């Protein structure tokens, strides 16, 4: 019988050959025992670390723990929402040749490909409304899944509408994502007249929005949306929007517009960018933008005498959706059906 391979023998601390093993079986047993004891020690140490980690989570409330984890993945500058790294992906456009009237900036995540595709077929499709050009772009941070990133690169090559930067794409980095969009506007498309920031779960009636903006006839120092004039920090630790007293010691936020959808003139974009690095970082994006507006003394305005920006889902009827700007919480299939229903019923009287 041939000897066992030397590499295997040494790893298991076996005797030098099988003959020696037969003559000294206790040594063979001791070798196995020492290896198992070493493995058990590593298993015990790993389980102890997991237990300690879990115990820390229990000691901290869940929201504070998520906040700490989020800060680990913030961009290098935690005290400033301005991110100066090179864009990983950005559209190849020349706004000066064909300036848009309205640019839609839509915050999204890597996994929301279906939502992006439906938006491209509906309210986000580049179109002329009258003689006003409307275009849309999607804002993302860096993902952790190489496969999804590869798909995103293909998507960018196909549609030329992806804006991405190298910060981890988490909910508490939404402020960075929004300021990234503002900076992109200021750098690559300052020729637009208006900018809208919104989300992928929104229905946006771009036709009615353009109509109202034309009627408003204010192209500077303008900011509108669903006005939040009396909101304060949520102290309920179980809330998604929980803010502790260290993050915001006051009882009332400065006026802001709900992050579900707000619209501003392009000069305001430049003002926000200019002050964003001097405003302490705040993880709630819409409140952070409100802090910037307060610093540059921009007052919020209503776009219409009737509510048009809805932060909740508005029940669908053609007449309801014809006279709104946003409705929140609309799923992709619903979005497509609502848009098609509006498109086919332009002659319906309300």
Layout of helices and strands:
Layout: H1 6-12, H2 18-23, H3 25-59, H4 62-72, E1 102-107, H5 113-121, E2 127-129, E3 132-142, H6 146-159, E4 162-168, H7 174-188, E5 194-199, E6 202-204, H8 206-216, E7 223-228, E8 256-265, H9 266-276, H10 285-295, H11 318-322, E9 326-328, H12 332-344
Parallel strand pairs: 1-3, 1-5, 3-4
Antiparallel strand pairs: 2-3, 5-8, 6-9, 7-8
Helix pairs in contact: 5-12, 7-9, 7-10, 9-10
Task: State the helicity in percent bands.
Answer: 40-55%
Q: How confident is the prediction overall: mean pLDDT?
A: 84
CATH class of the largest domain: Alpha Beta
Strand percentage: 15-25%
Number of domains: 2
Structural class: alpha/beta
What's the CATH topology label of the largest domain? Answer: Spore Coat Polysaccharide Biosynthesis Protein SpsA, Chain A
- The poorly predicted ranges are 1-22, 57-83
Rg from Cα: 28 Å
What does this structure look like?
By secondary structure, the protein is an alpha/beta fold. The chain has two domains: 6-56; 102-344, Spore Coat Polysaccharide Biosynthesis Protein SpsA, Chain A (Alpha-Beta Complex), CATH 3.90.550. 42% of the residues lie in helices and 16% in strands. It has helices at 6-12, 18-23, 25-59, 62-72, 113-121, 146-159, 174-188, 206-216, 266-276, 285-295, 318-322, 332-344; strands spanning 102-107, 127-129, 132-142, 162-168, 194-199, 202-204, 223-228, 256-265, 326-328. The strands form two sheets. Strands 1, 2, 3, 4, 5, 7 and 8 form a seven-stranded mixed β-sheet that branches. A two-stranded antiparallel sheet has the order 6-9. It starts with 5 loop residues before the first helix and ends in a 6-residue tail after the last helix. The model is unreliable at 1-22 and 57-83 (pLDDT under 50). GO terms for molecular function: N-acetyl-beta-D-glucosaminide beta-(1,3)-galactosyltransferase activity. It is found in: Golgi apparatus membrane. It is an enzyme of class 2 (transferase).
């Amino acid at each position: 019988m041939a000897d066992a391979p030397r590499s295997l023998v040494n790893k298991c601390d076996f005797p030098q050959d099988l003959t020696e093993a037969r003559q000294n079986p206790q040594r063979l047993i001791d070798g196995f025992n020492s290896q198992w004891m070493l493995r058990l020690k590593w298993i015990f140490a790993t389980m102890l670390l997991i237990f300690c980690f879990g115990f820390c989570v229990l000691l901290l409330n869940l929201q504070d723990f998520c906040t700490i984890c989020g800060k680990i993945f913030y961009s290098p500058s935690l005290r400033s929402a301005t991110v100066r790294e090179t864009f990983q992906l950005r559209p190849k456009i020349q706004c000066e040749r064909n300036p848009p009237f309205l640019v839609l900036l839509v915050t999204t995540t890597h996994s929301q490909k279906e939502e992006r595709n439906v938006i491209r077929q509906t309210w986000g499709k580049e179109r002329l409304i009258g003689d006003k050009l409307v275009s849309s772009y999607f804002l993302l941070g860096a993902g952790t899944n190489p496969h999804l990133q590869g798909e995103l690169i293909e998507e960018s090559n196909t549609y030329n509408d992806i804006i991405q930067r190298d910060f981890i794409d988490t909910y508490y980095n939404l402020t960075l994502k929004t300021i990234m969009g503002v900076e992109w506007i200021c750098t690559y498309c300052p020729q637009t007249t208006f900018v809208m920031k919104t989300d992928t779960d929104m229905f946006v009636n771009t036709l009615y929005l353009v109509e109202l903006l034309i009627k408003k006839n204010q192209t500077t120092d303008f900011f509108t949306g669903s006005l939040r004039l009396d909101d304060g920090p949520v102290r309920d630790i179980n809330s998604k929007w929980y803010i502790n007293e260290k993050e915001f010691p006051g009882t009332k936020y400065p006026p802001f517009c709900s992050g579900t959808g707000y619209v501003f003139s392009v000069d305001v974009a430049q003002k926000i960018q200019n002050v964003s690095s001097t405003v302490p970082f705040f993880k709630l994006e819409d409140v952070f933008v409100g802090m910037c507006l307060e610093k540059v003394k921009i007052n919020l305005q209503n776009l219409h005498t009737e509510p048009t920006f809805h932060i909740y889902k508005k029940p669908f009827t053609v007449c309801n959706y014809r006279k709104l700007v946003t409705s929140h919480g609309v799923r992709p299939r619903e979005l497509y059906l609502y848009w098609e229903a509006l498109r086919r019923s332009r002659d319906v009287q309300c």
